[in-house]
Amino acid sequence: MFDKSHDPVAELDRHKTPQDFGDRVALRLVKFMRVFADAFFAKRYGHRAVVLETVAAVPGMVGGMLQHLKAIRHIRDDQGWIRELLDEAENERMHLMTFIKIAQPTVLERAIILVGQALFFNAYFFLYLLFPRIAHRVVGYLEEEAVISYTQYLAQIDAGQAENVAAPRIANDYWSLPEDARLREVVIAVRADEAGHRDRNHEMADSLTG
Question: 182 - beta bridge partners?
Answer without folding.
Answer: 166
